[in-house]
Amino acid sequence: MKINIIGGGPAGLYFAILMKKLDPSPDITVVERDGPHDTFGWGIVFSEKTLTFLDGHDHQTYTGITAASQSWDAVVVGHKGETATVRGNPISGIARLSFLNILHARCRELGVDLRFQTNAANVADWLDCDLLVGADGANSLVRKTYEGFFLPSVDIRQNKFIWLGTEQPFPGLTMIFRETDAGLFISHSYKFSQTHSTFIVECPPETWLRTGLDKMSDADTCAYLAEVFKSDLGGRPLLSNNFVKWLNFPLVKNKRWYHKNVVLLGDALHTAHFSIGSGTKLALEDSIALADSFARCQTVAESLPEFERGRKPVVEKFQAAALQSLAWLENVKEHLYLDPVPFTYRLMTRSRRVGFNRIKRTDPEFASQYNVWRKAQPQAGPIPAEYLDLFQKKSFGHLATLMPDGTPHVTSVWVDYDGKHILINSARGRLKDRNMEGRRQVALEIADPDNPDRYLAIRGPVVEVTEAGADDHLDKLARRYLDKDKYPPGMRFPGEVRCLYRIEPKHVTTWNPFG
Ligand SMILES: Cc1cc2nc3c(=O)[nH]c(=O)nc-3n(C[C@H](O)[C@H](O)[C@H](O)COP(=O)(O)OP(=O)(O)OC[C@H]3O[C@@H](n4cnc5c(N)ncnc54)[C@H](O)[C@@H]3O)c2cc1C
To answer: Is ligand 1 within 6 A of the CB of residue 445?
Structure first.
């Protein structure tokens, strides 16, 4: 068997290693346009869970990575000039170059043919093989060459970001929010070696233009940003790595993952926002999943569909969480009024993979600080505070309305809560619309999608039916329920008129027998 891999990043190199471990006989070539000691960027991070997973697949690379890593367990958030720390998040940082060099050494040891400084300008030149892997990053040439088959989408996000370094040690995953006269700047930093930390700066496009960063030289850019974060950097400069470039994050997805004997891997296939720090983790897990498919199925024709079938749902779930995180940062202005502890709590729970109970388990001290703040707040309204998470999850409500003859009608609905009323969004002329217009009493059960035994049961009158703001509200719901910025026009009926229904929760029952 002959395998050609375009792209010697984490995905391509790790896949080559795993395939050689599976069977040393295939002839595997990795084509990489850069040299073995060139790399853009600084450090990358892995969670403890990811490292344990890697250990199970290749102990030697795991040992190399852990020996070259810096570990910590805190997330530190800087806001309003103060910091809040949340412990219990074990993470390791490693220089991207050291990490790649560990993979290079392992590839050589296993007999992989590494061809550096070789740019694959034309995919057809590398098709002379049984399997061609496109592991050529977010701007993948392989994906573009077969875009008619892969059907990719690339959503270019609004915020500008730049990947820099510093000698200031940040012994924790540190995010700092700085409001300046020109606008908001956010930094993401972490220590990845004895001497250096990664320092990514992100800002909204208006801030970027207002400050003139679009026209600044590399040196002026580093100096300007070092001044913005002067106190956080202890006055140390920001460093560039031959790569001072502002980027917009491209959210890459592909409808199909393989075409004949060509398959995509890593960033070429999908991206996940750096705020959840897991692009490399996803790339490595792809390699593991593809190699596992080859271990289970004998042929390329069987292995590639098996890879897509097993891996795609996992990646889609992860990308949905990463999109929540990214969108939260794009809209962070609405949270900046909060004090550091509640702000940090919202930040920690932004991708909805972490909730209060998890934080309480891993850092009881931070959880109790948050509780003090929560208890001091004015009453949240008729819905108990510990059930408000149901309005952040993809929770479905089952809405009971009354038919003209008095018999009940039940339908599932998306639900929202404004602190006073439950909000339902529907369209004029639907059965529930007609029922609610005619008979205002309704009942609604909202179950936790993660535990249907836990639910809210609500009864009360529909106190308002209005078209005002209903379209914007539907877009808001689409962000939560569909992971889309806007409700897709194609999902609407021609001429559909949306309505908002405000339900006053007069009777509220909660149920969580096993929680
Ligand atoms: C600012 C920023 C911060 C990040 N921080 C983190 C982090 O903390 N943790 C984390 O896990 N991930 C992080 N990532 C993401 C991470 O860098 C990628 O997700 C990861 O490297 C993907 O691996 P890959 O092998 O798929 O692609 P890449 O690492 O992009 O590798 C692709 C390789 O293909 C080569 N190539 C491309 N085209 C050709 C061609 N035509 N011919 C030959 N070679 C070619 C490229 O030179 C490159 O070496 C970050 C990304 C950015 C932009």
So the answer is: no
Q: What is the 3-state secondary structure (H, E, C) of 417-437?
A: ECCCCEEEEEECCCHHHHHHH
- Same domain, yes or no: 205 and 339: no
Give the pLDDT band (50/70/90) at residue 515.
Answer: very low
Are 250 and 353 in a shared domain?
no
Does the pLDDT at position 181 exceed 90?
Answer: yes
Distance (angstroms) between ligand 1 centre and the Cα of 267 equals 6
Residue 104 β-bridge partners: none
Same domain, 78 and 116: yes
pLDDT for residue 47 is more than 70: yes
Q: Which of 279, 302, 324 is the last residue of a domain?
A: 324
CATH number for the domain spanning 184: value is 3.50.50.60
Closest ligand 1 atom to residue 281 Cα is 11
Same-domain pairing of 378 and 413: no
CA distance 506 to 70: 54
Question: Does the global pTM surpass 0.85?
Answer: no
Q: Whole domain around residue 405: which residue ranges?
A: 388-511
User: In ligand 1, which atom is closest to the CA atom of 93?
Assistant: 8
Indicate whether residue 137 lines ligand 1 (CB < 6 A): yes
> Phi, psi at residue 8, to the nearest 5°?
-105, 50
Question: How far, in Å, from the CA of 9 to the mean position of ligand 1?
Answer: 6
Residue 163: CB within 6 Å of ligand 1? yes
Is 58 within a domain?
yes
- Ligand 1 center–CA 40 separation, angstroms: 9
Inside any domain, residue 329: no
* Length of the chain measured in residues: 515
Nearest atom of ligand 1 to the alpha carbon of 136: 34
**Considering its fold, how many domains does the chain have in total?**
3
Cα(6) to centroid of ligand 1, in Å? 13
Residue to probe by mutation, ligand 1, list 38, 44, 48, most atoms within 8 Å of CB: 44
Atom 38 (ligand 1) nearest CA: 136
Strand arrangement, sheet containing 113-115: 113-115, 27-31, 2-6, 131-134, 262-264, 258-259
Residues 48 and 118 in one domain: yes
If asked whether residues 487 and 346 sit together in one domain, one would say no
Give tens-digit pLDDT for 126-173. 999 999 999 999 999 999 999 999 999 999 999 999 999 999 999 789
